[in-house]
Amino acid sequence: MTEGNAGVAKKFLYVNRRAPYGSIYALESLEVVLIGAAFEQDVSLAFLGDGVYQLTKGQDTKGLEVKNFSPTFRALEDYDVTKLYVEKEALEARGLRAADLVVPVEVVGAERMAEIMEAQDVILSF
Amino acid sequence: MLHTVNKSPFEHRALETCLKFARQGSAVLLIEDGVYAAAKDTAVSRQVQEALKTVSIYALKPDVEARGMQNRVMDGVRLVDYGGFVDLVAEHNAVQSWL
Prior knowledge:
The complex is a heterodimer.
Chain A: E1 11-16, H1 25-37, E2 42-47, H2 72-75, E3 83-87, H3 88-93, E4 106-108, H4 110-118, E5 122-125
Chain B: E1 2-5, H1 14-21, E2 27-30, H2 45-51, E3 56-60, H3 61-66, E4 78-80, H4 82-91, E5 95-98
Parallel strand pairs in B: 1-2, 1-5, 2-3, 3-4
């Protein structure tokens, strides 16, 4: 930021609740995260419900002929976006573990997730 | 009757409703986010296993692969490609899409 609230980084949380490919939400969220990261804000990502499916390993979209954007999550680290929180209950209900995901994440219960949400300045939902 | 379900069973009731009305011997094809129902060891896998006793359940392979579920498909659910989708439509008297 070069004017106005110069140097004041706000806390942004992107809340992802949709599976990839079935709708455009997941891809659009990732695009916005990448744009936002260029403005050097304090960015966190939360994955709730079906949103955890965005991070599954082994995605192969050749048959669908759409872009496989799951590798892009691995690039977030280069933008200093390293706070990825995944809902524990959502993972368990889907038979998944943190090791099944393409990036390191912090698996948190609902109460901790609520605290993370409470601590934000801006929350964007996808 | 061929039933198709394209919604995740964790966020929608489409699959549950479909299975309630699917008669013995009919076929259910999971497509798009519906393929998540084909995964084993989930909160809905027992429901799908129970349904397999009376109906045939298929999942569209390109949708399964796109979502990284290819190594998680439960026994009894058969994968079909787009050609197989067409065959299922041709084999059944009608198609009911549970959107």
